[in-house]
């Protein structure tokens, strides 16, 4: 397992692979990767935010590879953290549950399959005792999480759209949408792969986006479909994130990010802004916890654009710069505290942190997967701190790959 340090940091790292981990070839590397915020040929209109000189931090970050979770026999498409558990979904329709504790996460992989038998799992989301899974067969499934019986198969309590929802729309022509020349469906149906899910701040609404170019809104209480925004984009929608103030951001293969808002008294979401800087499909989106920054990852150039709120318009964001370091498509992004984690088709995970002003620094590059990194999850590691004087924070990063494995990494980051 290999760790690469970005040029503006010289950290400490060691390998703590369990018996389930891949063979380690860890060694110290000082590299000159171009991995800070920079302009690029495909994004010429976006300025560089990289300072001319960068100061080395002391103490430096420390990195560990803690475990490799083996159990899936196909691509790992989705990860989700909830309580003491990590959930993973794969292309062969399996959903597995693992302990978040790296020391025991790899135990009994043959017993941790909690759902299977339908279609490829593209996205997982946890809400209380319910697990929502988005599938390639155009369906959303709701599973009742069993907290009492270990390794018990979860019961599927609903499939969206529900039978009741479908039946209510059958007998009125206005409920049908032309999806192909000789094919119509009711508006509550997705008619292509469901690529991502998001939950509203109060947990009452579930949002879904699909390669059918629509996004839909569902009630989490009875699973009714409340709204469908048809032709929201001109191509497949790959990502969705929600802000705390109700803005909805959707990223699409049409190279655009669209911003939607449903104001008080409105029945439907309205388009309030369109963000256009990427020159290829938008694959991933992530918002900072305070909603001040939106990160977007593209398909072809390995760029991550940093969008910031435009002070004069609450709906609009402007491109402040681009993080450049990955050399292939960005496939996934996640934010934890002030860190951004990015996964790429180049088989690496990068950890970024915003510094003074608009500048960002790449703290580390994790290498170890043998296939593209398709999904990420991250959280503060409250059980493992590097010191007792509060000089830094430890994080756990989980990465799922097309190599069928999930890796667990630990990074300790000093306070700014």
UniProtKB/TrEMBL annotation:
Keywords: Repeat, WD repeat. Pfam families: WD40. WD repeats lie at residues 69-99, 187-228, 230-270, 275-308, 323-352. It comes from the Eukaryota. InterPro entries: JINGUBANG-like (IPR045182), WD40/YVTN_repeat-like_dom_sf (IPR015943), WD40_PAC1 (IPR020472), WD40_repeat_dom_sf (IPR036322), WD40_rpt (IPR001680). The keyword Repeat applies. PANTHER family: F-BOX AND WD40 DOMAIN PROTEIN (PTHR22844), F3I6.5 PROTEIN (PTHR22844:SF387). This is Transducin/WD40 repeat-like superfamily protein.
